């Protein structure tokens, strides 16, 4: 977590049954030893999944770092605190646990996916806006109000003709990728008007993406895609939602429109198979980072609808964190197991 005003860096580390929060000030020497432990949070171990860190982000308006754990705790860490105030305050808890968290770009709204398979939307003060089941048979307002132009059946399909457009895939056979971590993901559009949730639908046995407006009303559901994976990132400019798909003969980065329809793809360059950990757009939408297990990051750009691999970064240590800088679009922050 990074405070852009003071340029302080916060780090949260889970050891045994405690989460420790460290702070590194700009004036400190750039060495691991210069991180000072400022707070700790005891955790109750979940025998099945463990109590892990789900999200850790700095909130400038609150002047605090927000920590969310899989055990359900939501805590604020305010610097070093003082003699009369503990620097760490647990401000709420989700009984069923937390699987995914994503703040809106303006940090006025936060969306959580709970262990009870619900989507929980709250204000920045953690007041509930809405909560609803993640699994639903409904496809969204955008589908029911469509006049048909966004449907695959009405799109031009070249020489194959309309018969190809109406050919039905056996979607009942669609499954998840063996590389899927089976965890949900949330990503916001850059203007904060919509967010998308990717999760494995229990009734379908495959991963589905659902697009909601800021009020939490379902707008669209993605078309069925076999072996769609967990990686998820909505391009800040708003025109594409990126994910990945593992096929027997290749590994693709696939794109969707807001209406849930596929809109292109490109194939990763792999000397051997690698699991996609995360996908991350930079702030000006010009670079898509593909974080691959466990020591590699590929940086892709596009021009005239063609995708180009600009850089392939390989590290000696395992990558444990990757984030683009919010203010400098061509700067990335990468943490490895050796730092």
Q: Layout of helices and strands, plus pairs?
A:
Blueprint: E1 2-3, E2 8-15, E3 18-24, E4 36-42, E5 53-59, E6 64-69, E7 73-77, E8 88-93, E9 98-103, E10 109-114, E11 118-123, E12 128-133, H1 141-144, H2 161-166, E13 185-188, E14 194-201, E15 206-213, E16 218-221, E17 233-234, E18 241-246, E19 251-256, E20 262-267, E21 276-281, E22 288-292, E23 296-303, E24 306-314, E25 319-324, E26 332-336
Antiparallel strand pairs: 1-2, 2-3, 3-4, 5-6, 6-7, 7-8, 9-10, 10-11, 11-12, 13-14, 14-15, 15-16, 17-18, 18-19, 19-20, 21-22, 22-23, 23-24, 25-26
Sheet of most strands: 4 strands, antiparallel
* Global mean pLDDT: 87
* Strand composition percent: over 45%
Indicate the radius of gyration in whole angstroms.
Answer: 21 Å
* Number of helical regions: 2
Uncertain parts: none
Give the overall silhouette: globular
Within the largest sheet, what's the order of strands? Answer: 1-2-3-4
């Amino acid at each position: 977590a990074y405070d852009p005003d003071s340029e302080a860096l916060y780090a949260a580390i889970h050891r045994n049954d405690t989460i420790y929060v460290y702070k590194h000030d700009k004036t400190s020497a750039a060495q691991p030893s210069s991180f000072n432990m400022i707070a700790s949070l005891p955790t109750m171990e979940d025998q099945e999944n463990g109590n892990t860190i789900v999200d850790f982000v700095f909130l400038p308006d609150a002047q605090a770092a927000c920590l969310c754990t899989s055990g359900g705790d939501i805590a604020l860490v305010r610097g070093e605190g003082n003699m009369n105030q503990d620097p760490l305050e647990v401000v709420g808890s989700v009984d069923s646990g937390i699987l995914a968290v994503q703040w809106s770009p303006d940090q006025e709204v936060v969306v959580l996916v709970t262990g009870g398979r619900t989507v929980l939307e709250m204000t920045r003060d953690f007041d509930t806006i809405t909560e609803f089941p993640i699994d639903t048979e409904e496809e969204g307002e955008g589908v029911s109000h469509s006049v048909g132009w966004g449907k695959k059946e009405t799109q031009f399909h070249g020489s194959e003709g309309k018969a190809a457009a109406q050919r039905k895939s056996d979607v009942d056979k669609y499954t998840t990728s063996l590389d899927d971590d089976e965890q949900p993901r949330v990503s916001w559009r850059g203007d904060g008007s919509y967010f998308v949730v990717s999760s494995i639908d229990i009734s379908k046995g495959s991963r589905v993406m659902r697009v909601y407006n800021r009020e939490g009303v379902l707008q669209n559901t993605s078309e069925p895609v076999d072996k769609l994976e967990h990686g998820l990132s909505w391009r800040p400019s708003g025109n594409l939602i990126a994910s990945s798909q593992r096929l027997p003969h290749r590994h693709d980065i696939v794109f969707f429109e807001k209406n849930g329809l596929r809109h292109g793809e490109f194939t990763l360059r792999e000397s051997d198979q690698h699991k996609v950990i995360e996908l991350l757009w930079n702030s000006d939408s010009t670079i898509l980072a593909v974080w691959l297990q466990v020591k590699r990051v590929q940086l892709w750009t596009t021009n005239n609808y063609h995708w180009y691999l600009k850089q392939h970064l390989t590290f000696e240590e395992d990558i444990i964190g990757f984030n683009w800088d919010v203010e400098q679009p061509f700067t990335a922050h990468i943490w490895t197991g050796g730092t």
